[in-house]
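Progress against Task 2.4 (sequence-to-structure conversion) is shown through the following example record, which the project officer requested during the mid-term review.
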Amino acid sequence: MKVIKFFLVGIFFGIVLVKSEAVSWYRIYEMFKFQSFHMYGIIGSAVFFGALFVWLFKVFGVKNIEGNQIYLIPKDSGFIRYIVGGTVFGFGWALAGACPGPLYVLFGTGVISMLIVIAAAVFGTFVYGVLKNKLPH
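Structure tokens generated for the chain above:
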């Protein structure tokens, strides 16, 4: 019963993604061709509200469900690692037609071919975990 809340949040997330057309291949195609503001609006509002909530967490000292204060570990500065990582992420997004979050939503809506993309994403994450210590960070 403890994990039911995660399933409910996941179902809600999937419904929001489908209803906002964020999982639509055509919307993603329009975004990459700079033909529509739709996806940029969704992503921009997510960035804005994410930054707002992080700021509110810091100001009000919000605690997690276990009563511990939420603390965000500062990221190491670097330029190349973020450019390379963002480029790989973007290529994967363009090739698959979806970023990692909507993969499961698309599979849930009946796009069976997303199983191949999910398997590739899991394999890529495994390979990164194996090579992480050998990569320049």
